[in-house]
Each structure stands twice: as C-alpha cells, then as structure tokens.
Amino acid sequence: MPDLPIVPPTEPGDAAIDRPASPAAAVGADVDVARRQFFRRFAGDMVNTAATVVGAAQALRETSTLAAQAILHPASGAATLAGSAAARADAELMVAPTAPGAEGPDGGHAPAGFRTPFRYGEADDVLLVIDQRRLPGELVEVEVRSARDASAAIRDMVIRGAPAIGQVAAVGLALTAHQARQLDPYARRATLRGSAAALIAARPTAVNLRWAVDRLMARYAAIGGAEADGLAIAQVLREEADAIVWEATVDHGRLADFGLVELERPESRPMQLLTHCNTGPLACGQFGTALGVVQAAHNAGWPLHVWVDETRPYLQGARLTAWELKQAGVPHTLVADVAAGFLMSRGEVDAVLVGADRIAANGDTANKVGTYTLAVLAARHAVPFYVVAPLSSVDPAMADGAAIPIEERPADEVLFVQGRPIAPPDTAARNPAFDVTPAALISAIVTEEGALRAPFGSALESAFERRRARRAAEPSPFRRAPAGDQGTELRPGQAHGARA
Ligand code: MRU
Q: Would you call 185 helix, strand, or coil by DSSP?
C-alpha cells in the first residue's frame, strides 16, 4: 500500500505556516514557527493530513458553549479556558456530516473527525488536557504544568489510554525540565529522576508510559546528565517529547491505513465491527488505533456499523467511544459486554478490533479486561480478531504475557455506578483492569509497519527493523539534535529502563 505522507495541520489562512511540502521541509529557518504551530494545534483539530484516516473526514461542527468552542477551535479566541475551574460546559457537540473536503463555516477547512485530548496552551509551559472523567457530560480541560501534574492526571484517569498517557508523561517531564533549568545540576538530576519514577509508577500495565519516560531520560543521559546545561536539557527533553507526539501522529495514521487493508468488506451489506474499551484519539492522542481503523473505513465511504462494548466497570466504551463515534458520524450501537457472544453467534460481527496496553515479544497482548473473553468468543465463531497498536505498545523484553503487570483498580469501581451502590453493602469485589489474550487467538497485530501475523516474535522483530529504517529516513522535523542521534529506540530483547 502507498506510504501516505502526513503534514502538520495548518491554521486556515495562515500563510506563515502554510503546509510544508513534507515534514522535512519544516526543518530550517521556519522550524520554530512550524514547530510551535504544530504542537499548539496537534491536539486541536487533527484534520488536514493526507492520511486516509482523516483525508475525507466527517465534519465536526461544534455549535455549543463557549467552552466547547474554545477547546475545539483554540485559535478562535472565542473563550479562554484556563484549567478545570474555568469550564463547566454543557458541551453539546453536534455533528454535521459534510462531504469530503467541505469547507467550514469560516470558509477554511472544516474541523473534522475525532478530536484529540491535549494541546499546548497559549504559553508553551502548559498542556491543556481534556478531563476524560467528565465525559460525555462535560468537556473540561485541566492544566498540566509539570511531571507531577502529569503523574496525577494519569493516576487519576484524567487522561488514559496507553499511547496518550505516554505522550502526556513525556510532555510533563519536559515541562519539569524547563522548570528545573536554573536548579543546581544535582538537584535537577534528583528532580528529573524522581519525576520519571513517579510517572512510571502512575499506572503499571501500559508500557507506553515507561517507554516514553525512558526515551526522555535516555536523552538526558546522552547529553551529559548532571554535567549538561539546564537550558540545553530543557530543550532536548522538549524536543524528545515533541518527537514522541509527532511520531505517534504519523504512526497512528499509518496503522489505520494498514488496518483498512486488512478488513474484508462484505459485498451487500454494511460491515459489522465490534470494539472494546476506548481506542480513539482520547486514548491515543492522535487518530486512534482500533478506532482509527474504523474512522478510516468510514472515511473511505464503507457502509459500516460498530458494536460498542460498554466496557464495565469503568465504561470507557459507553462514555468515550460512543462520544467519539458520535462526533465522527459513525453508526454505532452500545451493547453490554456480555452481549458479544450472542452477536457473534448470530453472525452479526464481521471482525473484532481492539487496542493494546502491552504486547509481549511473542504477541501475547494485555488490553482492557474483557478482551480475552472476546478473543475466545471470536475464535469459537471464526470471527477475525485484530489487535491494533503502535510498536510503542510492544515490550520486547517481556517474553510472553505471563509476566505483564496487571493493574488492580479499586473495588468501588465495580460496586458503584455513578456514585450509586449496585451491590449489598460489604460485598467483596475484585477489579483487574486488564487481561492477557494469548497470541494464538489473535488473527493479526496491526502496527504502523504493517499487519503482523504469527509467529509474532519474528514478525515484531522485522517490524522494529522497518521502523528503525523509516525513522532514520524521516526523523521528527522538529528535532535539532545532531544527525545520527537516534539513540532512543529500544531493540528487541532490550529491557525498558536499560538506559535511563
Ligand atoms: O484503563 P484505560 O482506560 O487507560 O485503558 C486503556 C485502554 O485505553 C485500553 O485498554 C485500550 O484498549 C488500549 S489503549 C488504546
């Protein structure tokens, strides 16, 4: 399939940053302008790219409150949202599907498709993160100014989803490096190390978190650690964080396209997909993983319908996936998780698409609890079962799924729904947040380097090689590190944390 280029989104009518011909073209004199523009808006309307996933996206036209206006159109100046206190939006987002390429109400590009959960504020010293605990009722942003804020946001589920928490952790650590630029070098080192440890500890299962933090700490070490100048450290860590966001943007677009190729389209009826948890931009920062494939199919004009598992107990499917699909205009129906077997037994599911929080070297995959059940059901009913995830979700050091740490969350999430008890007082409850699907039940793992099939060990190793070559050929356009300094990629078999 063609390798589709992705260019940074542009502000309608903003000639200064008018779309570089390629990411590489941004390097040079205008790098700062382009960089600032991309990273200011990377989470605003990730729409104007050439990737299939958004190339013909549905238009999302917000018609709601000032808060929604400010979040969806940060450049409009319609309102200032400075953190959680500011926004109590009855954010009603209305979707007005339009033809591909339709113009927005301002005559520019219509904001379209899913939206992403974080963006830099007006000053680059704050990341505004959508509080996902309040969705779908309220669209509210909270401020992240440091690694400490980022750790709290991740731990408290303000931001969640494996790729997204990695990105927010990276930016949070870079913000702390900025704050610490004037500190004594050893105090700065202690601050960075402590922050890194706190971020990694915030949630245990999604490997993207550790992977992102390790990348930044590897850069810190590479430029001299405590010996390096505070300003240089801040700049390098910010570049690394930005590179992580940039790469995710490119990679998620690619894996959506690979996923699209993978799906078998029924001839005479809409395709029926089933998904679990939330794998859209809210979870991933960019187009999404499994839901990115859905969006790509929808954008390609395929008639389709999505069964959305509600995803007990935290209800990411009901609260977040349904919200995202509604914005994107994708037909969908919410079902109780336990309905999946019934639907498959009636032939009403053509494929299951799920994400991943950690993929072991042999392909065993940890994902939201309930995924394993779906995989068993899919095998029973000969329904293809796809894991869609970037290679940053692969932990090459973990031989198989048995050792993947599984987060156990509070029992109250099982015992209460929206603050109301659903079981007799003192009922015991257990709440494992993830489960592990054996590789043997997975039809393919769709990554940014293609759809991989068993045996996954060698397929993953080749995919890492392809990614390394691609990264060398297309480094982040916003990185000013010396040529050849690509030293932050883990190799198969190398433990995370080995360089930090
Ligand atoms: O506990 P969460 O909401 O952070 O769950 C993680 C996930 O979003 C899912 O497991 C998802 O399927 C993989 S990440 C796109």
A: helix
pLDDT at 71: 36
Name the one residue in this structure whose structure tokens are 């290679």: 391
For ligand 1, whether the C-beta of 321 sits within 6 Å is no
Q: Would the CB of 160 count as within 6 Å of ligand 1? A: yes
Backbone angles phi and psi of 474, in degrees to 5: -130, 70
Nearest by Cα to 307 from 348, 261, 260: 348
Collect the ranges in the chain with pLDDT lower than 70: 1-115, 478-500
Atom from ligand 1 closest to the CA of residue 161 = 8
Q: Which atom of ligand 1 is nearest to the CA of 277?
A: 12
Which stretches of 73-125 are DSSP H helices?
none
Do residues 244 and 212 make contact, with C-beta atoms less than 8 angstroms apart?
A: yes
pTM: 0.79
For ligand 1, mutation pick of 277, 310, 312, 374 (most atoms within 8 Å of CB): 277
Q: Residue 84: is it exposed, middle or buried by C-beta count within 10 angstroms (0-12/13-18/19+)?
A: middle
CA–centroid distance, 209 to ligand 1, in Å, is: 12
What dihedral angle (degrees, nearest 10) is formed by the CA atoms of 339, 342, 346, 351? 60
- Residue 25: the pLDDT is 36
**What residues does each domain of the chain span?**
253-467
pLDDT value, residue 35 = 58
The reply to whether ligand 1 has any atom less than 6 angstroms from the CB of 195 is no
pLDDT of residue 375: 98
> 301, exposed or middle or buried, with CB in 10 Å at 0-12, 13-18, 19+?
exposed
111 close to 72: Cβ distance less than 8 angstroms? yes
CA torsion sign, 270 to 274 to 277 to 278?
A: negative
Residue from 256, 246, 245 nearest 55 by CA: 256
Return the residue whose CA atom lies nearest to atom 6 of ligand 1.
Answer: 161
Q: What is the pLDDT of residues 21-63, one digit of tens each?
A: 333 333 344 555 555 555 554 434 433 332 333 332 222 223 2
Task: Please report the pLDDT score of residue 481 as a whole number.
Answer: 53
Beta bridge mates, 260: none
The CATH number that domain 253-467 falls under is: 3.40.50.10470
The torsion defined by the Cα of 139, 142, 143 and 148, in degrees rounded to 10, comes to -140
State the DSSP string of 310-328: --TTTTHIIIIIHHHHHHH
Average pLDDT over all residues of the chain: 79
DSSP state of 387: E
Give the closest residue to 233 by CA, choosing from 171, 187, 189, 197.
Answer: 189
Phi, psi torsion values for 261, nearest 5 degrees: -60, -30
Cα–Cα distance measured from residue 338 to residue 261, given in angstroms and rounded to the nearest whole number: 29
pLDDT at 84: 23
Give the closest residue (by CA) to ligand 1 atom 9.
368
**Maximal C-alpha separation, the chain:** 68
Using DSSP's 3-state secondary structure scheme, residue 103 falls into strand
Quick one: pLDDT at residue 57?
27
